[in-house]
Amino acid sequence: RERCPALAPIVVYRVPLQDRLGDCSAVWDERGRLTRFNIRVASNISWDAQWQVLIHEWAHALAWREGNETCDDHGPEWGLALSHVYTEAE
User: What pTM did the predictor assign?
Assistant: First the structure.
């Protein structure tokens, strides 16, 4: 959290997922302001896989910017964020 802060706090959940390994979603308040990111990581996969998924999803939160309001894009900003998270996770 200290090495790779996003625009809003990140809350991580480990939950059994059947259709995906993880996801990242932005949460807004009633005024339309970003309040947090929720990251879900499948708890029914190995610890190593969970770590890799967490890094992948954390990069989505880091890449989120006003005007680019999606957590599911794998574009250049996400690639740079992923590189940053991997570097800092070591």
Answer: 0.90
**Beta strand ranges found along 1-90 (DSSP E):** 10-15, 22-28, 34-42
Contact 41, 9 (CB under 8 A): no
> CA 67 to CA 41: how far, in whole Å?
26
Is the separation of the CB atoms in 4 and 62 below 8 Å? yes
Q: Are 28 and 35 in contact (CB under 8 A)?
A: yes
Other C-beta atoms closer than 10 Å to the C-beta of 9 total 14
Query: How does pLDDT run across 67-87, given as a tens digit for each residue?
Result: 555 555 888 889 999 999 999
Please choose, from the candidates 15, 16, 11, 48, the residue with its C-alpha nearest in 3D space to the C-alpha of residue 26. 11
- The backbone torsions φ and ψ at residue 87, rounded to the nearest 5 degrees and listed phi first, read -65, -45
